[in-house]
Write a structure and sequence with these properties.
12 strands, TIM Barrel, 362 residues
Length: 362
């Protein structure tokens, strides 16, 4: 396995706090202004990427604010100069021709720093209340597979004629194409068998939800072994970080957030009711207490600065290239991570492709 350079990213706060909504240290704020300032600060601090989750309505409580992902991504593309901007997308909400055109526009605004994150939906009301309907789990992935086929080929500048079960595209060409590379990158989320097959066939990077290292290594081994017609698949991991000078201090901070998260039980009950039970992310999140979304603290990045740095190096040796991180309170902890953890990780990290590192990843 080729070990790629390590990258760090942040989840944008498009629907507010990631661990607990009733935290006096982080009042609810999903505004454009906060997200703008957050991503600009992340770029200044040296972060490499940001992920903007895509929802039309708040997935936890519908009367709470929810930032729109794609208009925000376009604005961030114009306001930043280095950070990668990843916008999530649920295929049922956008026709693939329209989405490909939007993606190419943001790709060129950002000068080749844009990516899409394909997710096949888990929040039933978002589609049902719009009259779109919420298809069965595997049917959603079959739709997403056809959808990304059209999007990918159009983003590559192909003049496309395509006839499938869901789409009939005739002699369609989008210009301008990407002015900086063949097309924007495609990230894919989901850990079910249809998701694994989809990312192996169509993705550039697989986003894995936060979970222990051994589980992540098994997932990577499974998907990395699948045949591909393009470059080897790359891997990213979502994780919530709580790092302090000592493990005891980190445990106190973790317990504070865990206690606060229990106050959100009514919101979590609504979320569970609205979620397809076949979604693997929701199954893994029920295995143990944790804070944060998309696996949260299950990745084990809770501890002293040295412990957290060592665990990150372990994930990287297993094949994780990009860590997409969550914090709370976000701005202060994001800065702490950049100051205390990133230098510790990089100080002991072998160069990409180093034989010792490659051996340790097998």
């Amino acid at each position: 396995m080729t070990i790629r350079p390590l990258r760090f990213g942040i989840w944008a706060l498009v629907h507010g706090s990631r661990a607990a909504y009733q935290d006096p240290e982080e009042p609810y704020d999903a505004s454009w202004e906060r997200n703008r300032d957050l991503v600009i600060a992340a770029e200044r601090l040296g972060y490499d990427s940001t992920l903007i989750a895509q929802h039309t309505i708040n997935p936890h409580q519908e009367d709470l604010d929810q930032l729109e992902a794609w208009s925000a991504a376009a604005a961030l593309a114009a306001l930043t100069s280095r950070i990668e901007i990843i916008a999530a997308i649920k295929p049922y909400l956008y026709h693939p021709v329209v989405l490909a055109k939007l993606a190419l526009g943001i790709e060129n605004i950002s000068r080749g720093r844009f990516a899409i994150n394909l997710v096949n939906a888990w929040n039933r009301p978002e589609l049902d209340k719009a009259g779109i309907g919420f298809a069965e789990h595997d049917a959603r992935y079959a739709y997403g597979r056809e959808w990304i086929t059209v999007v990918s080929r159009l983003m590559q500048g192909e003049r496309l004629t395509y006839k499938g079960e869901h789409f009939d595209v005739r002699d369609y060409l989008l210009r301008p194409g990407s002015l900086y590379r063949p097309r924007p990158l495609i990230y894919v989320g989901g850990e079910s068998e249809p998701a694994r097959a989809l990312v192996a066939d169509h993705g550039d990077v697989w986003f894995i939800n936060g979970q222990p290292l051994d589980d992540v290594a098994g997932l990577i081994a499974d998907v990395a072994a699948r045949p591909r017609a393009t470059a080897p698949l790359r891997f990213g991991l979502s994780a919530f970080v709580i790092a302090r000078q000592t493990r005891a201090e980190a445990e106190v901070a973790y317990q504070r957030l865990l206690d606060l998260s229990r106050l959100d039980a009514p919101i979590k009950a609504i979320q569970k009711q609205n979620t397809d039970p076949k979604v693997v992310m929701m199954q893994t999140m029920q295995k143990s207490a944790r804070v944060g979304s998309n696996g949260g603290t299950a990745a084990g990045l809770v501890g002293s600065y040295e412990e957290v740095a060592a665990r990150i190096r372990g994930f990287h040796a297993a094949g994780i290239e990009l860590f997409m991180l969550q914090f709370q309170p976000f701005e202060a902890e994001m800065e702490r991570f950049a100051k205390e953890i990133i230098p510790r990780v990089r100080a002991k990290l072998p160069a990409a492709g180093d034989p010792a590192q490659l051996a340790g990843s097998r």
